[in-house]
């Protein structure tokens, strides 16, 4: 997802609606600028109490590979009709 898509989803999602915004091992990929921007946008929205963030472990990691996760955002409140703070 790009930044505009993230902001649009956060603004338009219904309360308790969820989205899987990344699948993989985010900590290993944060050196990639687009992934870091995406993760930071979701973190900022979580700090503003617009969303909650969750992880769902898909597979275990071991000494040869990292675990695989789904990173999930869930909308906390409905902002439609309210002024966009982005």
Provide a short characterization of the protein structure.
The chain has 86 residues and is of the alpha+beta class. Helix content is 34%, strand content 28%.
Structural category is: alpha+beta
Poorly predicted parts: none
Number of extended strands: 3
Strand order of the largest sheet: 1-3-2
Radius of gyration: 14 Å
H/E series, N to C? HEHHEE
Summarize the amount of helix as a percent range.
25-40%
Shape descriptor: globular
Number of helices: 3
Head-to-tail CA distance between termini: 16 Å
Could you report the average pLDDT, rounded to the nearest whole number? 89
Biggest beta-sheet profile: 3 strands, antiparallel
Tell me the fraction of residues in β-strands, as a range: 25-35%
Q: How many separate structural domains?
A: 1
Regarding quaternary structure, what we see is single chain
Keyphrases for this structure?
about 90 residues, three-stranded antiparallel beta sheet, 3 helices, 3 strands
Report what the structure shows.
It is a single chain. The protein has 86 residues and is of the alpha+beta class. It has one domain. Strand 2 (51-59) and strand 3 (68-75) form a beta hairpin. Helix content is 34%, strand content 28%. Strands 1-3-2 form a 3-stranded antiparallel beta sheet, with helices on one face. It starts with a helix and ends in an 11-residue tail after the last strand.
Q: How would the blueprint of this fold be written?
A:
Layout: H1 3-12, E1 18-24, H2 26-29, H3 33-47, E2 51-59, E3 68-75
Antiparallel strand pairs: 1-3, 2-3
